[in-house]
Specification:
Elements lengths: L4 E5 L3 H15 L21 E8 L2 E11 L2 E9 L8 H15 L4 E6 L4 H6 L3 E2 L15 E6 L3
Parallel strand pairs: 4-5
Antiparallel strand pairs: 1-2, 2-3, 3-4, 5-7, 6-7
Length: 152
């Protein structure tokens, strides 16, 4: 069976509900973060930041936010729903993020990769590279900074 993946900006109240649910249960599950999850964090609604949902057919299975900074985009709060992990959806999400970034004129992606995600990013072609030490605070304090150049 062929599946259809699509990366769509968060628009509806139901989209926001699902985004928060995935973030809360995957990224902010008990014991993972020292900070509480804030559904109303202003960064989600900042002008150049776009939260997205990864759709698989008719289901919302993943989340990511892209913070656009000209020719650079910062990839944030990446997660696949717990019951969908390990099925290759992250690879699809990474490819769709790259496509969206290129479409918007981005030349380089940056991420603060959680320790358990560094291997995933390396498999997707990301390279370890410090890009802003001031970013490594709060939930990113133990992260590894990585970059990915957009081809053509």
């Amino acid at each position: 069976m062929n599946h259809f993946y699509e990366l769509r900006p968060v628009m509806s109240a139901e989209d926001w509900r699902r985004l928060h649910e995935i973030r809360r249960t995957v990224l902010f599950r008990p014991g993972r973060q020292s900070v509480a999850y804030d559904e109303n964090h202003p960064d989600d609604r900042a002008a150049d930041n776009v939260p997205y949902l990864l759709h698989l057919d008719d289901r919302r299975i993943g989340v990511v936010r892209l913070d656009f900074r000209g020719e650079i985009a910062i990839v944030r709060l990446v997660a696949i729903a717990a019951d969908e992990q390990g099925k290759g959806h992250g690879r699809q999400l990474d490819a769709l993020v790259a496509t969206e970034a290129k479409r918007r004129g981005v030349k380089s992606l940056h991420v603060n990769a959680a320790p358990e995600a560094v291997g995933y990013y390396e498999k997707m072609g990301w390279k370890r590279a410090g890009w802003d030490p001031d970013e490594l605070t709060g939930i990113a304090r133990n992260c590894t900074q990585m970059t990915k150049q957009m081809d053509g």
